[in-house]
């Protein structure tokens, strides 16, 4: 496609390197404009101090600075993309609008409407693969169907990559920078957070391309130990790159290329290949969502929709206690405190808290999923839905329904010294490593000597795990009857 004038619409791809749409626009046209739209449909319902908006806002500034260094600039608008983008395309007189593909069902629908609106004005809409290494139809079973089990999917994914290494090739931008449309002299300054209706504040982690790269460089130094360290929430064992992957401030190809190089030259130890597997989980869940969009509202396995979750005022109270970290199970409460205060939760703890909500409290996974969606800085529909359905056993390749995490033994195993709990539940800081995982088992006078009174300083457990486990097995028995 050759054009004189094009517009790249940035969405969840906030970077100016190794960028499929930007590369295509710059190689096919000699006047490339760039736009980001603060989508009022997404932003209006958010709290005014939303951490993700602060991250996006800082990343937009970094993107604009990089585009200016290259000779272009970022136009920033606010409103409904379906109105703003066609209007801007007309104002600039571009022949095409280019984007990096977004696979979430609502985004797919919006992009289909965008293509129609632009076509009605005689303009093209081009959507390119960028966010994943392989899309939903690129890694298939021998029968040419989608996988529903992770390990064979991963093996097929790796095999396909080995046969098509060019899939990881970078989409360079710098060398075509002369094709950027230069910023007009009267280009307005980027809007402040207040101007888009949000409270001022710092992003929750280093934002933008340089933030992502600094975090990745730091992780690369620790990657060899990832396989061991990744399960311990008190340790700095994981990359924390999920927010950058969510908003595209880093490139998945760049991450996979680096991990593979480190596997090949031995510098990544065993950690690099374990980490690569996690990146493949991300694509697995993206594929599941794209192939089975019913998972947004229903269980992946229909038989599990017969489960009767707890409801009513008692369930609402249990749910509120879980959200606020008042369950009486220290590891669960510490994890919820981390989520509420920072917007991050360690993967092990996402599994523990999701299991606790669904299998100890008997509450529908969809309620927990929505709470995570509200709070997580890295919230992403595919991975969040996949993670929740895994923990609730309703998903594909999920935890078997009769396997129920014991929140105390998880705590003893993955926070053995209680460091994580002490950081996030200071009321228990004086307890020893032996006492901290289940304070209700400690004699009251021993607790009192340490300044802790249960029911005053820290709650009694909401449920007794053994009894809750029994109720869950009964609740899930319906699956045994309904399943073929
Ligand atoms: C109930 C539940 C909800 C979750 N919700 C989300 C979510 O909304 N957004 C999100 O990005 N991840 C989600 N995850 C997956 C995982 O917990 C996070 O990706 C991870 O904790 C992010 O930390 P990190 O970047 O340090 O991960 P690392 O361990 O460094 O992993 C590297 C990258 O691999 C991907 N990844 C790792 N584990 C998984 C996984 N289990 N599933 C899919 N991708 C994975 C992420 O992109 C991550 O950044 C969820 C998991 C569970 C169990």
From TrEMBL:
Alphabetical list of Gene3D superfamilies matching this protein: 1.25.40.80, DNA Cyclobutane Dipyrimidine Photolyase, subunit A, domain 3, HUPs
One Pfam family linked to the record: DNA_photolyase
Domain Photolyase/cryptochrome alpha/beta: residue ranges: 4-133
UniProt keyword list: Chromophore, FAD, Flavoprotein
InterPro entries: Crypto/Photolyase_FAD-like_sf, Crypto/Photolyase_N_sf, Cryptochr/Photolyase_FAD-bd, Cryptochrome/DNA_photolyase_1, DNA_photolyase_1_CS_C, DNA_photolyase_N, Rossmann-like_a/b/a_fold
Cofactor(s) listed in the protein's UniProt record: (6R)-5,10-methylene-5,6,7,8-tetrahydrofolate; FAD
Stated family: Belongs to the DNA photolyase family.
Stated name of the protein: DNA photolyase family protein
């Amino acid at each position: 496609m050759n054009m004189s004038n094009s517009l790249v619409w940035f969405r969840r791809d906030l970077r100016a390197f190794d960028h499929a749409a930007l590369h295509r626009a710059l190689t096919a046209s000699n006047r490339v404009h760039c736009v980001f739209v603060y989508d009022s449909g997404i932003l209006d319902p958010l709290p005014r101090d939303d951490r993700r908006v602060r991250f996006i806002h800082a990343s937009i500034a970094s993107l604009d600075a990089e585009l200016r260094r290259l000779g272009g600039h970022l136009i920033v608008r606010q409103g409904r993309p379906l109105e703003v983008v066609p209007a801007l395309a007309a104002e600039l007189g571009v022949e095409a609008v280019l984007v990096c593909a977004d696979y979430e069902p609502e985004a797919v629908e919006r992009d289909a409407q965008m293509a129609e609106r632009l076509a009605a004005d005689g303009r093209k809409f081009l959507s390119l693969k960028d966010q994943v290494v392989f899309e939903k139809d690129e890694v298939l079973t021998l029968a040419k169907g989608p996988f529903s089990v992770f390990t064979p999917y991963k093996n097929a994914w790796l095999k396909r990559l080995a046969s098509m290494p060019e899939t990881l090739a970078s989409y360079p931008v710098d060398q075509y920078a002369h094709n950027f449309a230069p910023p007009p002299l009267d280009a307005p300054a980027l809007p402040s957070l207040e101007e888009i209706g949000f409270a001022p504040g710092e992003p929750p982690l280093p934002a933008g391309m340089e933030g992502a790269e600094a975090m990745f460089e730091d992780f690369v130094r620790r990657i060899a130990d990832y396989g061991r360290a990744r399960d311990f929430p008190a340790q700095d064992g994981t990359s924390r790159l999920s927010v950058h992957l969510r908003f595209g401030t880093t490139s998945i190809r760049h991450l996979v290329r680096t991990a593979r190089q480190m596997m090949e030259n031995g510098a990544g130890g065993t950690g690099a290949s374990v980490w690569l597997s996690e990146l493949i989980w991300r694509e697995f869940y993206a594929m599941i969502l794209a192939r089975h969009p019913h998972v947004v509202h229903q269980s992946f396995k229909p038989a599990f929709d017969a489960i009767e979750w707890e409801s009513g005022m008692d369930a609402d109270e249990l749910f509120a206690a879980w959200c606020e970290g008042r369950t009486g199970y220290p590891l669960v409460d510490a994890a919820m405190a981390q989520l509420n205060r920072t917007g991050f939760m360690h993967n092990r703890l996402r599994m523990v808290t999701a299991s606790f909500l669904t299998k100890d409290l008997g509450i529908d996974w969809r309620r927990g999923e929505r709470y995570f969606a509200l709070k997580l800085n890295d919230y992403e529909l595919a991975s969040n839905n996949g993670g929740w359905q895994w923990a609730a056993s309703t998903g594909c390749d999920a935890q078997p329904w009769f396997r129920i995490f014991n929140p105390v033994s998880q705590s003893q195993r993955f926070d053995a010294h209680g460091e994580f709990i002490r950081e996030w539940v200071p009321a228990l800081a004086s307890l020893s490593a032996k006492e901290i995982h289940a304070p209700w088992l400690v004699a009251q006078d021993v607790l009192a000597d340490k300044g802790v009174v249960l029911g005053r300083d820290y709650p009694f457990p909401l449920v007794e795990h053994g009894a809750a486990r029994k109720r869950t097995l009964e609740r899930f028995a319906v699956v045994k009857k309904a399943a073929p």
